[in-house]
Amino acid sequence: MNEITVQELKEKIDNKEDFQLIDVREDFEYETSNIGGVLIPLGGVLIESDKISKDKPVVVMCRSGKRSAAAIMQLEQQGFTNLSNLRGGILAWQAEIDPEISVY
């Protein structure tokens, strides 16, 4: 499974690269803190897979990296080959990029 660090994600954002960020946390988690990804909770990731790009890089994130890894495993079985897991999730983002963001 491809992984990306929070520093690499920040570079993608800062460089305005063409990629999609998918957040597989639950609604209440996303409302507490998010970095602008498309919210598709893990339980609905296969049902809503049509919202996920197949023709550009996609970074999948959650709180710590475990649910996003599970989402990627499910999506790769559906033929996705362009996915990267955000290592450490929003917790790593808060620790290394934005200490002001709320985590839980």
Task: Summarize the structure in words.
The chain has 4 helices and 5 strands; from the N terminus they run βαβαββαβα. By secondary structure, it is of the alpha/beta class. The protein has a 5-stranded parallel sheet. The longest helix has 12 residues, at 66-77. The relative contact order is 0.24. The mean pLDDT is 97.
Helix proportion range:
25-40%
Overall geometry comes to globular
Roughly what fraction of the amino acids lie in strands?
15-25%
As laid out across the biggest beta sheet, the strand order is 1-5-4-2-3
Task: State the end-to-end distance.
Answer: 26 Å
Radius of gyration: 13 Å
Essential attributes:
104 residues, alpha/beta, five-stranded parallel beta sheet, globular
Q: Topology, please?
A:
Layout: E1 3-4, H1 6-14, E2 20-23, H2 27-32, E3 38-39, E4 58-61, H3 66-77, E5 83-86, H4 89-96
Parallel strand pairs: 1-5, 2-3, 2-4, 4-5
Give a short summary of the structure.
The chain contains four helices and five strands; from the N terminus they run E-H-E-H-E-E-H-E-H. With 104 residues, the protein is an alpha/beta fold.
